[in-house]
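Before relying on records like the one below, remember that each one covers exactly one chain. Contacts with other chains, cofactors or solvent are not represented anywhere in the record.
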Amino acid sequence: MTGGKERNIMKYYNTQRPITPGTYPSDYEFEKIVNFDEKIYIKEIDREAWGYLEIGCLLPDDVIKEWELTPENLKTFYCVTIAIYDDGRVTAGITSTVQSIKKPLSKYKNLRRKDIYNDWFATLEEAQAFIKEAKQA
């Protein structure tokens, strides 16, 4: 491309059914729609798919979920929950995982007898290291 801004092309796979009218959100302008002759294994999403849609923008999470699409660059994030009690005790552990394109936002709650932190990590190793560090603090 010359003189223009390079666009990110997002690829969304349909793992549930072939892509036909009514099986994807029609209120978006897709640049490419590809159906395979049969369901095939796609290394990038580590599962089988019937085809994919390409678009020059990131679809909202609720649209992805509603239409049962699987983004090509889906990652697993690990939530570490740490509770720091008023008496000094600390508990920490991985409490959930989520597959998403973006890392979820970390959260904090101040309760009557403890503070609770939910932090997200891109790898299991980072999450485990954070837990170890928290328990030693």
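The chain has two domains: 10-73, 76-136.
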